[in-house]
Amino acid sequence: xxxxxxxxxxxxxTVCGADKMDRPLSSACGADLMSDVLAFVKExxxxxxxxxxxxxxxxxxxxxxxxxxxxxxxxxxxDMIELAEQxxxxxxxxxxxxYEACGRLYQNxxxxxx
Amino acid sequence: MRAAVSERSSSLQISAMPDGFKENxxxxxxxxxxxxxxxxxxxxxxxxxGIDPAIIRRVSIATYEAELNMIIHSFGGEMTLSIDSDAIYxxxxxxxxxxxxxxxxxxxxxxxxxxxxxxxxxxxxMGLPNIKKNSDEMQIRSNPGGTHLHLKFxxx
Lengths: 114, 156
Known about the structure:
Chain A has 114 residues and is α/β, with parallel strands linked by helices.
């Protein structure tokens, strides 16, 4: 699945990184706890979160996470967008809850991070 | 630099530096806004010299965890990146207050971080175990005067 395909499944709005939507995703994970994300997320994993602060983008950068989806209509702040643009992380938003967003991607064949 | 380094040209050529490469980063206590800047800089240096991306990823995770630890728990200090032909080394040296019980700190889920830190998504007690998991060698010495975390990542 590519970022573009995941975005279509979740009816996402693209905040930044629209030119990098063809990158492949190998898995996804839903988490607000960045400590957990740092401990188990693999590369090319899509991160879904309800946590909105610059550390989420920084965490994605460190882990080579190509894309973050902010759930429940949460909107990233300007400093997050700037950091994401600098580091090449695509930021998306969707209206679904974390549970439903993860469920829809799982149903469409995107596996969990193991 | 042997197998782990690609042929790609770069502004940093470690093989041309007999003493290797070294850079220091100052980490200020409580400076959450800057958290990750040193780790991001280290990541870009490792990319520039063509280190294997899988190794860069492990170094990045470990340095980011270590940088967060210094910001959250220490009075501040220095993080040093050193590279020679065999390995990447990260040294984190702070000025206190030390880790009271290293054995407990190494346990997953044990945390002394404040609720404020946990509200930001950190301080879950995964830091030191995750640093150990991602490094090839880890040594930690601590007393009330400061902590020295030494990490080694093989590149050959």
